[in-house]
Amino acid sequence: MTTNREAWGSKLGFILAAAGSAVGLGNIWKFPYIAGENGGAAFVFVYLLCIAIIGFPVLISEILIGRTTQRNPVGAFAVLSGKKGWISVGFLGVAAGFMILSFYSVIGGWTMGYVVETLKGSLSNFHNPEEAGVLFGTLVGSPVWSIAFHTAFFAATMFIVIRGVQGGIEKAGKIMMPILLLILVILIIRGVTLDGASKGLAFLWVPDWSKINGSSVLIALGHAFFTLSLGMGAMLTYGSYMSKKDSVVTASFQIVVLDTLIALMAGVAIFTAVFASGLDPAAGPGLIFQTLPAVFASMTGGVYFSFLFFLLLAIAALTSAISLLEVVVAYFVDERGWGRKRSVMIFGGTIYLLGIPSALSFNLLSDFTIMGKTFFDVVDFLASNVLLPFGGLMIAIFVGWIWSRTAVMEAVKEGAEDLFETYPWAEGVWMLFLKFIAPVLITLVLLNKFGLIS
């Protein structure tokens, strides 16, 4: 274990970095398209409820474990439990960060590539999403294009992480998060001023409950979990650099609010433009790379808004990627005594190389499948659908049932004494959700991912 461990320079730095970890492609890409597929406003309401009953309680728990131990996921469980089974849960968090970043960087590279393609004028002449889809297929079907931008994205990620917690991650968060919010505001202003934008707003804010079924509820549950970067060790690691003078509960609430606000803002920006163009809001994963380029191409000044949107997407992806790499780096710095530069270069490089087969899954390795899935799909399924929910389930069980109740409450009240004095019932409510409700709902998400329930 290392001494003189790094820490955040300020509370604001931590909030922006942690929110940046949570704010990623899940907010700007996945949330709008799954909301579109599941009826819009009614799904948004269910999603917000899921954030409150799963996301918030588990987020508090994950950050609390990190802040209390001042260690990475493996070291944290070693300190609090010392049992091999729980230490293995920490290793799963590190493994999840390793695996997710390998394929996440490929998609992050696409966003960078689309920024460049916009500047080249490649996205200016679409008449419909099908034409945009042809270009997308051509681009990701090129091994050179895919690997080049995977490389550029990963190099940017490593550059930030190698500079440390304050000089790299915190500074990047303070720069990129305000830029991200500014771009979103610009895109929203443009969206709501388009003819027909009111239909997009109604789609997002006026619920049609007939659109909600058991499947859409499970999707909302899964996304509420995924969007906050829970179960992959990122929030635990970021929490480990947090001052014990700051309230974990308040910080978690601020992160949830900022993350959710950005997802909703992205929904407004996207759906106003999509409805104004008369296109399909339920376009699925193709909404971002196929439908929106066609939307921007039909706008006056669309090339500028296309550039801003894909820049926004690239920034969101990068803020999440640096947290994933930090999970892996923190383990080797804390537990193995490695220097930060050595850890980033060796294991950042290893993750980058693992990402190459994912980048090639859309071209040279498209015919190579494992149980009917490409290499990209296999890594995505294992990390996103298995390791993340399982990691979150274990965190809820550990804090709710294994860790001493007295020790848990002493830790969570540190820096938040006034909060618990003002709201003495908060302790019982948090424990209720953590011990009973969150484990049951996360288990349902896991069963759904394996097709056992729908």
* Helical run tally: 19
Our estimate of the beta-strand percent is: under 5%
Average per-residue pLDDT, rounded, comes to: 92
CATH fold-level name? Amino acid/polyamine transporter I
Helix content: over 70%
Outline: globular
Which strands sit side by side, in order, in the main sheet? 1-2
| Poorly predicted regions | none
Q: How is the biggest beta sheet arranged?
A: 2 strands, antiparallel
Task: Please characterize this protein's 3D structure.
It is a single chain. The longest helix has 37 residues, at 84-120. This protein has a single domain (11-449), classed as Amino acid/polyamine transporter I. A hairpin with a 2-residue loop joins strand 1 and strand 2. By secondary structure, it is mainly alpha-helical. Helix 2 (25-37) packs across helix 12, helix 5 (84-120) crosses helix 15 and helix 14 packs across helix 15 (340-360). It contains 19 helices and two strands. Strands 1-2 form a two-stranded antiparallel ribbon. The protein is globular.
Secondary structure: elements and pairs:
Blueprint: H1 11-22, H2 25-37, H3 41-69, H4 73-80, H5 84-120, H6 129-140, H7 143-162, H8 165-192, H9 197-205, H10 214-227, H11 234-239, H12 248-276, H13 286-298, H14 302-335, H15 340-360, E1 369-370, E2 373-374, H16 375-402, H17 405-413, H18 417-422, H19 426-449
Antiparallel strand pairs: 1-2
Keywords:
single chain, 454 residues, mainly alpha, Amino acid/polyamine transporter I, two-stranded antiparallel sheet, globular
What would you say about this model in short?
The chain is an all-alpha fold. The chain has helices spanning 11-22, 25-37, 41-69, 73-80, 84-120, 129-140, 143-162, 165-192, 197-205, 214-227, 234-239, 248-276, 286-298, 302-335, 340-360, 375-402, 405-413, 417-422, 426-449, and strands spanning 369-370, 373-374. Helix 4 runs antiparallel to helix 5 (84-120), helix 8 (165-192) packs parallel to helix 12 (248-276) and helix 10 (214-227) packs across helix 19 (426-449).
